[in-house]
Amino acid sequence: MPPTNEPAGQGGGDGWQPRWDGPVIVVEGVHKSFGDVHALRGIDLAVERGRVLGVLGPNGAGKTTAVKILTTLLRPDRGRALVEGRDVARSPAAVREIIGLAGQSTAIQEELTGRENLDIMGRLYHVGAATRRLRAEELLERFELQDAADRPAKGYSGGMQRRLDLALSLVAHPRVVFLDEPTTGLDPRSRMAMWDVIREMVGSGTTLLLTTQYLEEADALADEIVVIDRGLVIAAGTSQELKNRIGGDVLEFVVDRRRSAEAAQAVRGLSSTEPIVDAETGRVSLRVGTEGSQALVETVRRLDALGIHTEDLGIRRPSLDDVFLALTGHGAEDEENGAGSRRGKKARRRSDRRAS
Amino acid sequence: MTTAHPALVALDVPSPPVGRRLRLAAADTAALTHRELLIWMRNPSFIFFTIIQPVMFVLLFRYVFGGAIPVKVLGGYVDFLMPGIIAQSAAFASFGTAIALARQLQKGVIDRFRAMPMARSAVLLGRLSADVVRLVVTLLVILGVGYAVGFRFHNGALPAVLMLVLGVALGLTICTVSAYVGLAVKDEESVSSFGLVWLFPLTFVSNAFVPVEKMPGWLQAFAKNQPVTIVIDEMRSLALGGPLALHAWQSAAWLAGIVAVFVPLAVRAYRRAT
After folding, report:
1. In terms of CA atoms, which chain B residue is nearest residue A120?
2. Which residues of chain A make contact with B24, given a CB cutoff of 8 A?
3. How many degrees, rounded to 5, is the angle at CA B205 between CA B200 and CA B208?
4. ipTM
5. B245: Cβ–Cβ under 8 A, 6 or more apart, which residues?
6. Do A96 and B11 touch (CB under 8 A)?
7. What is the pLDDT of residues B32-64, one digit of tens each?
8. Taking CB atoms and an 8 Å cutoff, what residues of chain B touch A20?
9. What structural domains does chain A harbor?
């Protein structure tokens, strides 16, 4: 499709810019290696205007590498990536005009106040002084940072810092936003607040690519999800499609480990899949689809009849581990061959996941 | 390659004209200079390193060590000391450059800048412009304290100004080395613990505090010929009177040479750092 020359209407303010009618984000056969580590082994993605794509994968799957390529920080070894039709390797400057990036890295300078951070970021995006002031006010209000606006960012809580950082990336009204694990390391309440902010941002028509380790998060925010593992897209679809493939909710309980086999035998037949028994801890889990509550009642009845005492009985949403187990046959925790995985990060992530 | 969008042809977005690019680069540099100066003023430890520590050095050498160091200079040790301590403080002020760049790199600030429509040169240029402001403030404070404890220029106003300019030039030159160290080491803690050990021999094994002739012969060979000594010789001649020409050329050559080596190295480290 030949590009037509029409005003862009929004963005960096360069006036006349060519218009793009294809998907806002296109990734075709992108490979990226760091020495022997093959971070991306040929991934394809496409995101239409105003949509949210959730890129789900464990630590080291290649999520951050993909974001770095799309935001011009890394060049692909092979394949190409387009943002609004601009090739990230051939016209990186044109890509930078229209994108916003936030997430694992931070653009916050802690010695400066929230307002100063926003103002200097606006200057670096070449936004005029008057517009900058209005925009800072608007973002501070939207992200509930007015009260802290004139305090140094050093004193902000983790959640406030993430919100300010996201606000910084939105100063110039980017048409495409990349969020690399925007809630990793946040407590559940701050995570919810961050979700609200992201939802609001998407509501105003921005195209968003978001990476996450939490199925729950992709579920809450994304229109479509791709699951990546070891540098490859292993599944793609809406959250519902994905959950159907995984087999829906999981029923889980813990019994005395000497009786775990017996308990598993008792619940066999409650779903079309086999129960999984962890003989070490006595934890039994079973995929129950959407028939969770019925299975729950039946489980209680059967175990009670056998005189098996249960603890921790309940139904939970499938976790990233369940997704991986279902799609790849191995758990998400096995992944440690990824680029960019630093020491200490893994341990932190693990405890995050447990807390979620 | 893929079946999804075989027909997509990437847009060709022309880059803006050179004039506009230069104007924007200047604006970016100004914004980052402002940012660095705000950070400096808000950070007690930076203020300590660039103001309080040099002042302590002046007082320490003037009153504690000074009496024990005989010098053959017009106004006694304090006049000998001040050009040296100005050079030493200017050199040590570059600590902040290395630490701040390493910190910004580690936190991902620089990654974020690189994903923005900002001139590539602006981060380094902004940093170095802020360093010049910092150096001027530091040196003026030291000079004020020096005057209070008895230092006087003996060679007129213009040479005095030139001495300060040379001190700032030395500091800025060493900032370019520090910028490279900070961007190459990439880790704030490593930079602050051993990334700058090279500064100590460079400044103390010089004629900054004691005449080189008092050192053992093998050390003199280094102390006499290293750039900090040569620059201080020139600064002393400017402040107190004495031969100017030879050391002026040598100073200029050293400083220009160091800048010519380390600016490209720093730029390369900045490009590679991600």
Report:
1. B31
2. 126
3. 95
4. 0.87
5. none
6. no
7. 999 999 998 998 887 888 889 899 999 999 999
8. 11
9. 23-243 (3.40.50.300), 246-355 (3.30.70)
